[in-house]
Amino acid sequence: MATRSDCVEEADAVVVGTGAGGGAIAAELAEGGLSVILLEEGGHYTTKDFGFDGPAMIRKLYRNAGTAVIRGTPNIIFSEGRCVGGSTVINGALSWRTPEKILQRWVWEQGLADLTPEKLEPFFAKVEERIHVAPQDPESLGEDVELLRLGAERLGHRYIPVQRSQKHCAGTNNCIFGCPTGAKQSTLVSYIPRALARGARLYPGCRAEKLLTKGARAIGIVGRFRDPETGQRGSQLTVHAKMVILAAGAIQTPLFLIKNRTANSSGQVGRNFLCHPNAKAIGIYDHDVLGWKGTIQGYQIREFLDEGIMMTTTMVPPGLLAMAMPYLGAESLAVMKDYNRMVAAGVLIEDTHAGRVSVDAFGEASMRYDFSPRDVATAIRGIALLSEVLFASGARRVLLPFAPLEHIDSPDEIPKLYRTLIRAADIESMTVHAMGTCRMGIDPRSSVVDPWGETHDVRGLYIADASIFPGPIGVNPQVTIMALATRVGAHLLAGC
Ligand SMILES: Cc1cc2nc3c(=O)[nH]c(=O)nc-3n(C[C@H](O)[C@H](O)[C@H](O)COP(=O)(O)OP(=O)(O)OC[C@H]3O[C@@H](n4cnc5c(N)ncnc54)[C@H](O)[C@@H]3O)c2cc1C
Ligand code: SF4
């Protein structure tokens, strides 16, 4: 029921979500001359609000205070942003174009003939310019990343310096709690200000709940204000718009569609859930590495990309690292005493199969993903290779993410990883990449959106976030999301 403070707005386009996809498409449309309204469930914090108090930042910036779990074997810890700027506010800013071999698969397997490197070039170039994709200033790199590089070099592995969306990053290693210097070019400080400068209206603390339709056409959104920190419900906002664009991320976008019982004649909404599971290993050195100084990543080891394995550093503040390890109480304290001598590193595993997002009994998202036997083998091989790199750079012990084998103390012990029975349930895993749950394709029977992001079933309803990935990509996804969202936006402008 409407209350006195409920309001009604009108615009050419309403965009749900302000992260990688929502920020990029909102700026594209507003700069193209359209009136745009942005709805964002999370709060609007700015650079001056970001600091080093991890628990406070997590409560403000993360969905479910960062505690979501993707159920399966093993359970996978999952984090995503919920604030103006979405996950880009808390991400590591690693920025890569979609690998060409992946685009070729999307063209061949999904019939997406326009997703070639040549046709995507202008969109990648525009994104890279907007979010300032650049190499790191050398002084922003810490010793942890140099040790990873040294290990790779000694073993002859191919590695590359990272490209990140940043301007003179100071290397404070606070990316996951919001960048306190404004160096990181999240959509909060890049695309959203561009959209606002061209008249876009932003409603933070407003969760889109209902899709408005007329026949088979989307005509708007009904949102509900809720205090992002207390959850207290407020008034309702109705936005009438010619174009409705969902960019709520690969978990919340399918949830919205499932709850609205729409755009799902294919039965594919929420399916094809890809998540790049990670497993980490921690090298312990004899000297102080002070890995918390310098940016989270400086190099990626790409020697084994064809096996679906990418390795890099993942040094995070001590509270978060302790949470990501299987120790409690005194045991955790004993391990964490070595924090200054640690190098945390991870293996990102390219998906070979998919999970599913559905709705639970409370109307919230339920995520399911199980490691296949091949994923287990890839995780073991990835951690074996990463251990070898850490030992090659001088680690005296490597802590492993496997319950039956917690650590090894020399490279000679690496074969133990293959002689110990390690099952899927024994692997500690986490992820921050969710993709694919409303996939793009030409066949309405097997995909949710067409090659221009419009849902096959509902005219005027578009998706412009990580949901529309037609398949796995194997690298950090934000540039791909932004490029696809920009491309959808350019298509909408061309039709106006
Ligand atoms: C800790 C972390 C580190 C990462 N590091 C990297 C990295 O280095 N490089 C990289 O490429 N990627 C990285 N990622 C992943 C990347 O940030 C995400 O893949 C990307 O931001 C997803 O874009 P999106 O538009 O799909 O969703 P998001 O960026 O998550 O944005 C979705 C937004 O929609 C809002 N929303 C959801 N539901 C509703 C609703 N019903 N109504 C209104 N608003 C809603 C959410 O609050 C959120 O703000 C990282 C992610 C995390 C969490
Ligand atoms: S490491 Fe760089 S980008 Fe990350 S929070 Fe610090 S200054 Fe910002």
State mean pLDDT (0 to 100 scale): 96
CATH topology of the largest domain: FAD/NAD(P)-binding domain
How many beta-strand segments? 21
Instruction: Please describe the biggest sheet, giving its number of strands, its sense, and whether it closes into a barrel.
Output: 7 strands, mixed
Q: Number of folding domains?
A: 2
How does this structure look, described?
It is a single chain. This protein has 496 residues and is of the alpha+beta class. The protein has two domains: 7-132 and 177-270 and 435-494, FAD/NAD(P)-binding domain, CATH 3.50.50.60; 136-166 and 278-350 and 372-426, Cholesterol Oxidase, domain 2. The chain is 26% helix and 23% strand. The chain has twelve helices and 21 strands. The protein has helices at residues 20-31, 54-61, 100-110, 117-130, 143-155, 191-197, 249-259, 318-323, 329-336, 373-392, 416-419, 478-494, and strands spanning 7-16, 36-40, 68-70, 76-78, 133-135, 159-161, 163-165, 201-204, 206-214, 217-226, 233-246, 278-284, 299-301, 309-313, 342-349, 356-359, 365-368, 397-402, 405-408, 429-431, 461-463. Strands 1, 2, 8, 9, 10, 11 and 21 form a seven-stranded mixed beta sheet that branches. Strand 10 (217-226) and strand 11 (233-246) form a beta hairpin. Helix 1 runs parallel beside helix 12 and helix 4 (117-130) packs across helix 12. The radius of gyration is 22 Å and the shape is globular. The two termini are 35 Å apart. Bound molecules: flavin-adenine dinucleotide (FAD) and iron/sulfur cluster (SF4). Iron/sulfur cluster binds next to loops.
List the helices and strands and how they pair.
Layout: E1 7-16, H1 20-31, E2 36-40, H2 54-61, E3 68-70, E4 76-78, H3 100-110, H4 117-130, E5 133-135, H5 143-155, E6 159-161, E7 163-165, H6 191-197, E8 201-204, E9 206-214, E10 217-226, E11 233-246, H7 249-259, E12 278-284, E13 299-301, E14 309-313, H8 318-323, H9 329-336, E15 342-349, E16 356-359, E17 365-368, H10 373-392, E18 397-402, E19 405-408, H11 416-419, E20 429-431, E21 461-463, H12 478-494
Helix pairs in contact: 1-6, 1-12, 4-12, 5-10
This protein binds flavin-adenine dinucleotide and iron/sulfur cluster.
Flavin-adenine dinucleotide binds next to helix 1, strand 2, strand 9, helix 7 and helix 12.
